[in-house]
Amino acid sequence: MKSVNPYAQRDLREFGEHVRNWRKVQNLTADELAARADIGRSTLRDIETGRGTTQFAAVMSVITALGIDRPVVEAADPLNHDLGRMRAHLMHRERVR
């Protein structure tokens, strides 16, 4: 397995902790959330502990099952951040060959 950048590993652990806390806030067991997300319990454990081997589709299934998918997806929108808005013109440039 490829080594994960230490900053990315930190963010994976933090994201996993947030997912676990969302599960607890919604009073769901790990088995219940895994069933709702249609993933295995071990995959959910990997997400919640920040293990960097889980497929992104499984992560999206979990955040969708928790009902937080829209804010997470919208947080990645460059237009929701100062730098993205400042450089928005770069998103529409045509590739020149």
Describe the structure.
With 97 residues, the protein is mainly alpha-helical. The protein has helices at residues 6-25, 30-37, 41-49, 56-65, 69-75, 82-86. The longest helix is centred in the N-terminal third of the chain and has 20 residues, at 6-25. The model has no long low-confidence stretch (mean pLDDT 89).
Task: List the keywords.
mainly alpha, 97 residues, 61% helix, globular, 0% strand, single chain
Q: What is the chain-wise order of helices and strands?
A: HHHHHH
Portion of residues within helices: 55-70%
Strand content: under 5%
Number of strands: 0
- Poorly predicted runs: none
Main sheet properties: none
Structural class of the helices, strands and pairings?
A: mainly alpha
Shape: globular
Question: How large is the count of helical segments?
Answer: 6
Terminal CA distance reads 36 Å
- What is the overall pLDDT average? 89
Q: What is the CA-based Rg, rounded? A: 16 Å
